[in-house]
Amino acid sequence: MNKKLIALAVASAAVAPAAFAADSEVVMYGQVNLGVVIDSHYLGTGEQLRVENLGTSSRIGFKGSEKLGNGLTAWFRIENGLAPDDASASGWATREGWVGLKGDFGNVALGRGKSAYQLAVEEFDWFDGPLTLGINEVDGLNASRFNNTIKYMGDFGPVSFSFDWGLGENKGNGKSAGRYNSASLKYTMGDLWFIGAGDVEKDANRANRDRRDALLGLGWGSGPVAVAGAYQYASAKDTGVKVKRNSFLVTGSYSMDNLTLKAGLDIGDKQRVNGTKVADSQFVHSLLGVNYALSKRTKLMSEYGRIDFKKPIQDKSTFTVGVMHAF
Fold first, then answer.
1. For residue 162, what are the domain limits?
2. How many structural domains are present in the chain?
3. What is the CATH number of the domain that holds 218?
């Protein structure tokens, strides 16, 4: 359960207490997720046993809102990445940092965080371990968070729409580094939902690297059963080298009491580099997982994942047992 920190406790000397307590609040929240991992690596380094922050990463955040009247609400969110196994990897506002206004028109925000495209991808990734089922994770073509963003989110009946405009900065030669656009559209019809998403990036995470992605998928859930499938096209051009790949994903889960069983499969065709298909570069990425809820906030997890390539590329497998606690 989130811990509510009423802003009156820290600002009562500066504001009207009654009005502030009624219309504004700040909430602290977070997760601490760690696992014991046995990992067989791509490059022949053998198995490695370690304690690691999971793919569903540990974090601590603060969020709040204030009712402004006439249906308008101001809000903010600051989320910080934590690495309990390695304090040097933690930082302030490393995950999300937003301030915005929402009303009948939708939700407009300024800041940094996950793109509309990345959030659409995560609709199909139901795993928590270090080897998640992120679409096209194998090539590292996906990027998730961006700076200097104007974000719009709107819900209109069965349709949800999100659009990001990354302005970039350090303008030179008439262009700004770090520019991107990202959009997603979700349509829900009873137990069935459809998602389409895409993004275009220019030097968004590294100089001289451009990316283009497209995603189309659907899912269904009823009672204890949920299934989903998607297609993704991903490409990245880095210092003149252009890499492309198509991939296809299917995932499912079944819940019974405190136990949830999960399975997923991601199949990628041959990677293309500067228009030429790379021999034996196709892969099959498979995952099995189980979660057991000890309470509403604490669960045990175990997952086994493999990425199988055709030789001579070495396969990778990961086995994880972990604890996830939300607060």
1. 3-326
2. 1
3. 2.40.160.10
Tokens representing 60 are 């601590």
Tell which residue, 27, 35, 77, has the closest CA to residue 56.
35
Task: Read off the pLDDT of each residue in 24-29 and give the average, rounded to a whole number.
Answer: 91
Q: What is the pLDDT of residue 33?
A: 96
Reduced to 3 states (helix: H, G, I; strand: E, B; else coil), residue 321 is: strand
Q: Which two tokens stand for residue 82?
A: 């934590």
What ranges make up the beta strands (E) of 208-280?
209-222, 225-238, 241-256, 259-268, 272-273, 276-277
Q: How many residues does the chain have?
A: 327
* Mean pLDDT, the chain, integer: 85
pTM flag (> 0.90) = no
Q: Are 151 and 115 in contact (CB under 8 A)?
A: no
- In this predicted structure, what is the pLDDT of residue 75? 97
Closest CA to 287 of 130, 164, 173: 130
Contact (Cβ atoms closer than 8 angstroms) between residue 13 and residue 7: no
Over residues 262-273, the pLDDT tens digits come to 999 999 998 889
